[in-house]
From TrEMBL:
Localisation: Cell projection, Cilium
InterPro entries: Cilia_flagella_integrity, Leu-rich_rpt, LRR_dom_sf
This protein's name: LRC46 protein
PANTHER family, A to Z: LEUCINE-RICH REPEAT-CONTAINING PROTEIN 46, PROTEIN PHOSPHATASE 1 REGULATORY SUBUNIT SDS22-RELATED
Native organism: Agelaius phoeniceus (Red-winged blackbird)
Top-level taxonomy: Eukaryota, Metazoa, Chordata, Craniata, Vertebrata
Coiled coil stretches, renumbered: none
Keyword terms, alphabetized: Cell projection, Cilium, Leucine-rich repeat, Repeat
Gene name tied to this protein: Lrrc46
Length: 216
C-alpha cells in the first residue's frame, strides 16, 4: 500500500508502476498538487481526502471498479481513470471543478448517453476522453477566440523558467501535457496556468523557509 506518516518532499508525487495495491491514510499532504499512481494494482479510490489541494490525479491502468471518494478534492482539475474496470459511472461522484477527464478503456463509456451525461454534470469540462468539449462554460469564460501559435510560444517561454530546475521531476508531466494537448490552445493554456500557479506558490513557500520570518 501507499502511505506515509509525514509530509512528502515535493508538490508532485510519482509512484507509477510500483505494484501498489491500495492508497493508505497519510498525513500532512496539503502541499501535494499532483499525484501519479498509474499502472499499479489499485482496486479502490480511498483516502484521497488526505490530499485536499490535489489538482492532478492519474490512476490510469489500475483495477478500479467504481468512481468514489472524490468529494473532498474541490480543486481537482485533471482526472485520468483510463483503462480501469469501471462498468457504471455515477456522475455525482465527480468533482465539479474538473477541466479534463479521461475514462477511455472503461466499459462505462459504452453506456447509452454516457458523454451527454458527463457533460451535463461537469459544466467546467474542457476535454473528455481526449476529445475537446465544444461550448463549455469554461470555454465561454475565456472569452472565445483561439490563441495564436505565436502567443502560445510566448506564454510557454514565460512559464518555462519557473518549471525548470529544481523542479526536474515535473518535466515528464509537462511534456505529456504538451503532447496530449498539441493543437488545442485553450486546453494547454488552462493546464499551464494551473501548474504555473502551483509552482509559484511552492516557490514562495520555499523562499519563506530559506529566508526565515520577516525577511521575505
Amino acid at each position: 500500500p501507499f502511505s506515509s506518516t509525514g509530509p512528502l518532499p515535493t508538490g508532485t508525487v510519482r509512484l507509477d508502476r510500483e505494484n501498489i495495491s491500495c492508497i493508505g491514510k497519510t498525513r500532512g499532504q496539503e502541499r501535494i498538487h499532483s499525484l501519479y499512481l498509474q499502472q499499479n494494482q489499485i482496486e479502490k479510490m480511498e483516502n484521497l481526502e488526505c490530499f485536499p489541494n490535489l489538482r492532478f490525479l492519474c490512476l490510469a491502468g489500475n483495477r478500479i471498479q467504481r468512481v468514489q471518494n472524490l468529494q473532498g478534492l474541490s480543486q481537482l482539475s485533471l482526472l485520468d481513470l483510463s483503462h480501469n474496470l469501471i462498468q457504471v459511472l455515477d456522475t455525482e461522484e465527480l468533482p465539479r471543478s474538473l477541466r479534463i477527464l479521461d475514462l477511455a478503456g472503461n466499459q462505462c463509456t459504452q453506456q447509452e448517453g454516457y458523454r451527454d451525461g458527463v457533460l451535463a454534470a461537469l459544466p467546467q469540462l474542457l476535454q473528455l476522453d481526449s476529445q475537446p468539449v465544444q461550448g463549455s462554460a469554461a470555454e465561454e469564460e475565456e472569452g472565445g477566440g483561439s490563441c495564436s501559435s505565436e502567443e502560445e510560444e510566448e506564454e510557454e517561454e514565460e512559464l518555462l523558467p519557473v518549471l525548470r530546475a529544481p523542479f526536474t521531476v515535473d518535466r515528464g508531466f509537462l511534456g505529456d501535457v504538451r503532447r496530449e494537448l498539441a493543437g488545442r490552445a485553450r486546453l494547454r493554456r488552462a493546464l499551464s496556468l494551473e501548474e504555473h500557479r502551483a509552482r509559484l506558490q511552492e516557490l514562495r513557500e520555499r523562499r519563506a523557509l530559506l529566508l526565515g520570518p520577516g525577511q521575505g
